[in-house]
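Can anyone check this?
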Amino acid sequence: MDTIDSELHEPILQSKPPTPETVSSELEETLSNTEISNFSRLKSGTWIELKTLFRLAAPAVVVYLLNNVTSMSTQIFCGHLGNLELAAASLGNNGIQIFAYGLMLGMGSAVETLCGQAYGAHKFEMLGVYLQRSMILLMCTGVLVMFIYIFSKPLLLALGESSSIASAAAIFVYGLIPQIFAYAANFPIQKFLQAQSIVAPSSYISAATLVVHLLLSWIVIYKLGWGLLGAALMLSFSWWIIVIAQFVYILVSDRCKYTWTGLSWQAFSGLWDFLKLSTASAIMLCLETWYYQILVLIAGLLQNAEIALDALSICMTVSGWVYMISVGFNAAASVRVSNELGAGHPKSAAFSVVIVTLSSAVIAVICAILVLALRHVISYVFTSGSTVADAVSELSPFLAISIILNGIQPVLSVFGKEGGKHKPRKHTSHNPENTSNPAKRSSDERPTSVRRAALVDRRSRSIDDRDRSTSAIDERSRSTNIAIVDRRSRSTTRSSIALVDRRGTSALVDRDRRSTRDERARLCSSIAIVARSTIAIVARSTIAIVHRAARRRGVAVGCGWQAFVAYVNVGCYYIIGIPLGAVLGFKFDLGAKGIWSGMIGGTFIQTLILIWFTFRTDWTKEVEKAKLRLDKWEDKKESLLTD
């Protein structure tokens, strides 16, 4: 009788929780099928995963490329106004603005982790809550970042910029203030959609926005004569077009009908844990972004720095564009792993790790081979100077190695965040059927809730990496363009390359030693000593990073792996990569090649650590942790619009 009464009092127009498109169990069933051979399982599973993977990765790559082109086009428009305007736009776009981009992208990564795992666990209504929660935090952060924009002129003057460039850059930066809050809304919305495997609409929106941006920028800058301020305002306006279009899609699309249920008071709960997760993601991303900026600054201290910087900038631009492919795979990988964890499919999650890593690595190797094949002509896309072309040709082998490492590291970073560790914990037995069958889920509630929390844990980690990969990409490509364009106008025919080749190194050593052979022998001996010392430092640093990160695993809910990857970044980039690059570049007079070698060393050690931690992950435990976290944060269900 009570049941009948409750049904009679149920509102007629209340929308019942639906069953939207859920995570397929086909892959898990294939991998668990012992009736077929291992080869057949591998073949079928690989085909299933590749179809899903490329359906997600391709549009994601397009989105990142188009958004980057949108920002670059603004610099190009400003460059046609004059050298001062180009310098101002480059400084504002690649200096101050990129800081906000990396920070917002990193903090927005928490949505990707949590939404992906909630979607896999069929807690669809929580996706909208996580989206609102992230936007609240990012908007508040945007208010703080806004003061950096407002006081950009005195900041630039304090950093040693000329008053004319600082004044012009400040005007450009003022026009980018609305863009801060567009970032704060865009990244959570973008991750919200990606978690549901909705990526194609974002690529269509970005493509249409680019066309509108180019047209409006041309009108405002050249026809209306608004100059730098107009260029910046149009860039901000274009980002708001993307935000509004994506949000309208969420409101009207049937695919988001059950994940967006309106504004909710629940968005204001759990903000502290959410902030810790978002902050760890942002720190991780910023550490990587600043790493490449510091290397460019170090290159500026070399002799004949203009040639070295031109060559380094061109190579980093190429690396940045190729890196976007890895970032697309990074985004797809995070969605795949978090969805499978949320659905209680540990075998599928582990299999996705292998397939995504191998796919990204194969594409990176192909790109590296193309770079080596075109090493003598790559630079002519950016400049006609033969001196710079020779310098780029010498750096191409280093560029190829970086491309291969960057094809693996971003994807592993995702799994480092999604995947988990190491200390054995008490956990209940796992039965995948419980997650896909609602009846069984309710009959065995404790294992289910345990499973849900593991998903979120990994998701939070994976988001941070993507976002950091994405931001590192944009930053690299943007800073590259600045150096290239600015220097092109100044030095087409400068003296010989600053990248010191073997002759230069020998000549330098000849000053203090008599015979060339003795000198080479001593140099080789010195390099061997440095190599041994570097290996020792690397080994000690790696051990310290690993043990310290392992001890801090339970510091805060949602921050475990993000904090761990931040430790890895500090150790590999700032303790190993930068010092090693400085020693090789200046002490051994290897110039830009030495600086890049240090960068490769840091990235290589980071990749090894991530491989080790990723492939020793207990995926069943990660399923349990994700479900625990999902249950913890699913507490209040009140709508803001309810009486």
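Reply from J.R.: I decoded it. The longest helix spans residues 445-488.
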